[in-house]
Write a structure and sequence with these properties.
about 475 residues, Aminopeptidase, 7-stranded mixed beta sheet, 13 helices, 15 strands
Length: about 475
C-alpha cells in the first residue's frame, strides 16, 4: 500500500514537472515570437526610413534646388549656393565648417563618429552664360538629401560611422576637388559617393577623361596697325598660328583625344598690333599617358607659333587630373541597390514639356523620352567628358550614380538641359538620385566584408594609364 502511494506521488511530481516544462516552453516560444516580431517590425521600419525621409523632405529639397537654380553662380563665386546647402545640413543636425582646403565657398558638414567614414561630394557651380545647364543645382541638393536620409537610417539601425558632405566648388573649371584632394581632405574616407545629372538612369561605369587645362599667353610688340605695322610683333598672330597647328595635329592623335580652346579677350582694338594674346585649352583623353603626350605636342605648337612671329609664349598648367578609376565591387553593390528602386514616373504635362523641348532644340523625337534603369556594363566605358572627381577616385574608392534629369538626347551644357533642371523633370531625377546614393551606401554598410573588398580592388587596380 505504501509503495502504491509512493508511486502515485512520483507520478504526480513528474506530471507537475511536465506541466512546468510545457508552461516554460510555451513562455519561451511566446517570447521568441514576440522578439522575432519586434525584430522584423524594426527591419520593416528601418527599411522604409530612407524613402520615407526623402518623401517627408521633398518640399525642402526642391526649394533648395530651385533657389540655387534661380541664383546661378560661377566657379569660386558660389556664395549663396554653398550657404543654401550648408544651412540645410545645419538644420538637420550636421556640424558645418567653412573654408575647406582654403577655398572660401567650400565647406565640410559632418554628423556621427567613428568608422566607416562616408564622404558625399556636392557641387553647385553654374556655367557662365548658360546657368545650370549641367544641373549642379540638382547635384548638390540630392547629395545633401542622401546624406541626411542615410543618417536617419544609421541612427535607427544603431550603426556606428561618420557621414560627411563636402561642398565642392568650381567643378566646371575642373578645380575644387583637385585642390581639396591635394590638401588631403579626402584621405581618411572609407568611400566617396556622388552623382551627376544625365538623360538616363544607371550606375556610372564610366572612365571620365584625364585632363590638362592650360593657358597660353603670347607676348609681342605693340605698334600702330596702319602707320607702322612693320614695327609690331603680333601676339594675336601667334595665337592664331598655334590654333592652326593644333587643328592639323588632330589628325595625328588617338581617336579619344580632345583639344578645344577659347580666346581670352585682350581688350585691344583692331587698329593696334596686339602685344598680348591669350588662349585657354582643355586637352583630354581616357588615359593620363595619352593626355600628357597630346599636351606636350600642343605646347610645341605654341612654341613654334612664337618662333614664327617673333613673339614669346608663357605656358601655364592651370589644373590636371587623372582619368576616373572605376571600382567594380562598388559599382556592383550600388547597381544591386538601384535595381530595387522604382525610377520616376512622369505626368502628361511633363511628357508634353519634353516633346516641346525636343521640337525647339531640334532633337530626334521618338516619343520615348525616359526609360528605366539601364543594365550594368561588363567593362568600364570611356566617355568624352571629364570631372575633377576623377582625381578623388585615385585617393579613395569612389562611386558615381547617374540619373535622368532631362529627356533622352539632351546634351549637357545646353539650354535644354538648363530648362529641365529648373522644373519638375529635373527635380524628380534629383530625388531618385538621392535615394539611389543613400540605398547604395546602406547596402554597402550591410554587405559582409564590403569595404574590405572595395578597398582590395582599389589598391590592386592601377586605373587606365
Amino acid at each position: 500500500m505504501r509503495g502504491r502511494k509512493n508511486c502515485v506521488g512520483y507520478i504526480g511530481v513528474i506530471a507537475i514537472q511536465l506541466i512546468a516544462i510545457d508552461v516554460l516552453a510555451t513562455w519561451v516560444m511566446c517570447m521568441l515570437i514576440t522578439e522575432k516580431w519586434k525584430f522584423w517590425r524594426e527591419v520593416r521600419i528601418v527599411g522604409n526610413i530612407i524613402s520615407d525621409w526623402l518623401e517627408r523632405h521633398e518640399g525642402e529639397l526642391t526649394q533648395a534646388a530651385d533657389f540655387i537654380f534661380r541664383h546661378p553662380e560661377v566657379a569660386y563665386e558660389e556664395v549663396l549656393s554653398s550657404r543654401c546647402l550648408a544651412e540645410f545640413l545645419t538644420g538637420k543636425g550636421f556640424t558645418v565648417s567653412w573654408g575647406t582646403a582654403g577655398l572660401s565657398t567650400a565647406f565640410t558638414a559632418e554628423r556621427g563618429e567613428g568608422e566607416p567614414v562616408i564622404g558625399f561630394l556636392a557641387e553647385y557651380d553654374a556655367l557662365a552664360g548658360a546657368g545650370h545647364a549641367c544641373g549642379h543645382n540638382l547635384l548638390g541638393t540630392a547629395v545633401c538629401g542622401a546624406a541626411c536620409a542615410l543618417k536617419e537610417y544609421m541612427a535607427a539601425a544603431h550603426m556606428p560611422g561618420t557621414i560627411r558632405v563636402y561642398g565642392c566648388p568650381a567643378e566646371e573649371i575642373m578645380s575644387g576637388k583637385i585642390v581639396m584632394d591635394t590638401a588631403g581632405v579626402f584621405d581618411d574616407l572609407s568611400v566617396a559617393v556622388t552623382w551627376h545629372p544625365f538623360d538616363r538612369n544607371r550606375v556610372s561605369n564610366d572612365i571620365w577623361q584625364a585632363q590638362d587645362i592650360k593657358n597660353y599667353t603670347f607676348h609681342g610688340i605693340s605698334a600702330h596697325a596702319s602707320k607702322s605695322p612693320e614695327d609690331g610683333r603680333s601676339a594675336l598672330d601667334a595665337a592664331e598660328l598655334m590654333n592652326i597647328g593644333v587643328n592639323y595635329l588632330r589628325e595625328h592623335v588617338p581617336g579619344d583625344v580632345r583639344m578645344h580652346y577659347a580666346y581670352v579677350d585682350n581688350h585691344i582694338p583692331a587698329n593696334v598690333v596686339p602685344d598680348i594674346a591669350k588662349t585657354n585649352y582643355f586637352i583630354r583623353s581616357s588615359k593620363r599617358s595619352r593626355t600628357e603626350d597630346a599636351s606636350r605636342r600642343v605646347d610645341d605648337c605654341a612654341r613654334g607659333a612664337a618662333l614664327m612671329t617673333g613673339t614669346t609664349v608663357d605656358i601655364e598648367l592651370v589644373k590636371c587630373c587623372k582619368e576616373m578609376k572605376v571600382n567594380r565591387p562598388l559599382t556592383e553593390i550600388f547597381y544591386q541597390a538601384m535595381a530595387h528602386i522604382p525610377t520616376p514616373e512622369y505626368t502628361k504635362e511633363e511628357l508634353s514639356f519634353a516633346a516641346d523641348i525636343c521640337k525647339k532644340a531640334g532633337f530626334p523625337d521618338s516619343g520615348d523620352y525616359f526609360s528605366g534603369l539601364e543594365p550594368l556594363e561588363d567593362a568600364p566605358v570611356p566617355i568624352s567628358i571629364g570631372t575633377d572627381a576623377s582625381e578623388v577616385s585615385h585617393t579613395v574608392p569612389l562611386v558615381t550614380v547617374s540619373a535622368a534629369t532631362m529627356c533622352k538626347g539632351t546634351p549637357l551644357h545646353h539650354w535644354a538641359a538648363a530648362k529641365q533642371a529648373g522644373m519638375s523633370i529635373g527635380q524628380k531625377g534629383m530625388l531618385y538620385a538621392a535615394r539611389c546614393m543613400a540605398e547604395g551606401t546602406k547596402l554597402l554598410l550591410e554587405t559582409p566584408d564590403g569595404f574590405e573588398k572595395v578597398w582590395e580592388f582599389h589598391r590592386q587596380s592601377s586605373g587606365n594609364r
